[in-house]
Design a protein that fits this description.
The complex is a heterodimer of chains A (136) and B (695).
Chain A (H helix, E strand, L loop, with lengths): L6 E6 L6 E8 L3 E7 L7 H13 L4 E8 L5 H13 L6 E4 L3 H9 L7 E3 L2 H15 L1
Parallel strand pairs in A: 3-4, 4-5, 5-6
Antiparallel strand pairs in A: 1-2, 2-3
Chain B lengths: L1 H8 L2 H58 L5 H41 L1 H33 L12 H25 L7 H20 L4 H10 L1 H13 L5 H29 L20 H19 L3 H12 L2 H49 L6 E2 L2 E8 L9 E7 L5 E8 L6 H17 L4 H16 L4 E9 L4 E7 L5 E2 L25 E6 L4 E6 L1 H4 L2 E2 L2 E2 L1 H11 L6 H11 L7 E8 L10 E10 H4 L3 H8 L4 H18 L1 E7 L6 E5 L3 H16 L1
Antiparallel strand pairs in B: 1-2, 2-12, 3-4, 4-5, 5-6, 6-8, 7-9, 8-13, 9-12, 10-11, 13-14, 14-15
Classes of the chains: A alpha/beta (136), B alpha+beta (695).
Chain lengths: 136, 695
Amino acid sequence: MQAVGDTPDGAAAGGSIDFVISQRELPHATTVLAVEGDLDLASAPSLKWALADLQSTGKHNVVVDLSKVGFIDSTALGVLVGAQRAMDKGVRLAIACAEENVLRIFELTGLDGMFEIVPTLEDALGYVQGSATAAG
Amino acid sequence: MARRSASLRFPAPPTCLALALAILGCVLPAAAPAGAAAKQQKSTAGEARSGAPAGAGADQPAAAKATAQSEGETKHDAQAQRQAERQAAQAQRDAERNAAQAQRQADQAQRQAAQGQRQVERQAQQAQRQAERVQRRADRAAQQLTRTSGGQAQADAPGAQTAARGKAQRERERELRRRQRELRREREPRHETRKQREAREAREKTLGSGSGDSGAVSQPAAAVAATAPAPAAAAAPSAAGSSTGASNASGTSTRRASARRAAARQRHARRAGSTGTPLVAALPIGAGQAAAGTPVPARTHKATATRPSHRVAAKPSQLVTTVTRIIGVIPTALWLVIGALGLLAAMFAVSSRVAARRARRLARQREELLEDVGLLQAALLPELPARLGPVGTSAAYRPASGPAAGGDFYDVFGLESGSLAVIVGDVSGHGRDALPHTTLVRFTLRAYLEAGLSPRETLRAAAPVLERQLGGSFATVVIAAYDPRERRLTYACAGHPHPLLTGLDEDAAIIACSAPPIGAGRRTGTRQTVVSIPGAAAVCFYTDGVVEARTEGELFGTSRLARALDGLPAHASAAELLDRVAELTERRPDDMAACLLDIAGPEGAEQAPFIESEELELDAQELQRPRPRRFLAAAGVADAEADAILAQARGAVALQGSVLLQVRPGAEGATATIIQDNLAPLRARAIARSQEVAL
């Protein structure tokens, strides 16, 4: 579980709050996308491209870490929905989030049932890598 | 329309223009000769005449002056001389007037002549040759006169013989008259208009009377003035001012003068090439010594103009003659008017063409814009009646300025059951691409509602249909039906915020187990809420753009919106609500849409709305997850009762594939029941059919 890479993938001046996505490659073909800032209309495209890149490179378990996200709007939810639907069979997407506002938005929109949303990054990694070991 | 008028308008000016140009084109070459035709005779004649008198005219005053200086001068002679001088001055003034008139005529001829440069040059050459002939003739006449007058040659010398001078004068006069007659016969006009003929006759009459009345000295000048004003003007000064007057000198001076004239002719000829001033021929007469340069222009024109008339005469054509006559009587003012009209026609033609093109372009753009606007209006802004039954309705839409514009939609309409239906939604994606999806979702949902399904059943039935057509997009939507008799509002959300009701806590509705959006790949239409509205209340449906507006760096949020709704005056409209939101926020990154139902309360009823029931549809997969338990907990169902109801639900799901769980909150605890819905039997049949196929 060591960080293979830590590369700032994109930064978008989305409104008043700075927005950063960092990408880390982990064993078992797992990639963590850590998002900081608000996921809104302005920043959602960056997340979309990052997810699209991962999916184009082959089978990847993906953990989207929203621990440092204060707000997520319908556009960003749409990006996550699209990513979830495009996931290959045998790989998993998990969301690590403990922020009340974000959890409430997931709940309110009925998408909490669509994703595996867990409180911590460790829980998320355990979920996706458990699937990987099961598949392997 | 614009095109037709343009095509009608357009040809007219060019036609006018072409007509005008055609007239100008065919006329001007002919006009130059024609206009000047009549003048030609007088001018050439005048030249010849003036040439002759010039020498004499120069002599005479000089002689008179010499006589005045002589000692033996008689009083009678002095008087005669003064009279002669006065007459000469008079003649000079007349000549100047005539010259001015001739100048005007010549200017006209010049303008016409400018049109036919080459022709003018030929004319100039001919005129030059003729002028030289005339000049030679004039020189001869002058020499002859000098010889005959004899003593006149010594006019300068004091003490000249008066008697001899009188005789010489008489002889000179006779000779002059004879020569004038000859020249007139020679130049007898062949094609002169009536007007011109009259003018000539008048001039001849003047000449005759002038010579008859005036003294011998004035006569030549008068004659010159009458026949050829310009030369006269030249001649008169020269006569008056010339102190040389000696005919002996005239031989050399004439030669010099003719050399100058030749040079001037060449200059004029060149200038005529460029400016159309064919002044050349003018000079012939030069009126003797002094005049070569001065008053020439007027005369020149005439001389030049002369030539064409000969040509026309040589090839008489009925058409040309007719046109020439017509042209001849058209005054300058009319020419100017014709020119101005032609110019106007050309301007109108150009401007109408430009205007027509611009009109077509604008019409095209307008059509495109109207198409876009019409699309937007049809998709987003249906016209709402101010009231539907007992309920006041209003809706408002504020598109975001920027790339996020578009995607929100709403609709409010009456149902056959007497209920009032509301649809408010937001399609993912923005701009033009979202518009077709908004209409698709709105009308599909409306159709199911009008077919009699409840809001939840509508979503349940329509979502799979819509998902296949949304092409990856998804839509959040809230559907509501208000039954005014029951005073009951039933609504179902799919990934969309719950409506707000005045008097009802915004957290009252259970958000656990909310249904996902249409097109998210998940079963939706799984939730429904029934609210009882016993008293007056306002119900606010909105899109997430409203609560996602930013104020002081934060989201506007549901709580602020609820407060803003409560703060509105009674019977306020959705537009007023959005205006209030706009006042309270600095940034609105997404579309804002809102729909308000203004529900009046019965007399004396001040009771606040309350939630009557919450419904959740569960399938086997969902029953395995912890969500249903959260839902029951949020509704206030005790754990023990929750376990019991979930166990009962699993049993029902095994039979029907899904089960509908209903929770009724109450003062002494919520009650949960499993109820049948309309769709359950349908689903059971579908499941049975698929099993048959599988078998």
